Amino acid sequence: MNRLEFIVATAFILLLAFAMGWFTYWLMHRFTRVAGGDMGEMDRLAQSLHEAEEMRDQAIIYLENREAELSNQIAQTEAELRAAMEGLRDARHEAQEMRDYIERMHASS
Prior knowledge:
Order of helices and strands: HH
Largest sheet: none
Strand content: under 5%
Oligomer: single chain
């Protein structure tokens, strides 16, 4: 190996080492890139997510309470309806008895 071949081989090896080092630095920087600006954004996103979860939990609680209220109102309305239907049935029965009584009174006179 003469002097020129040695210089070219050494230059190639140094260039290859530089390229590998630069590529390694780029990869490390790419995977571990959480700078101050990025951390601030991540904190803001985490806070927004936390607030959204709290709002979701409050909405679920509100909907559960509202559903319980509406179920209670439906039960009360059904009970009132049953009572009204029983009252109407009794009134019809009483009206029929009165008609029968009046018919008997007219038939006997």
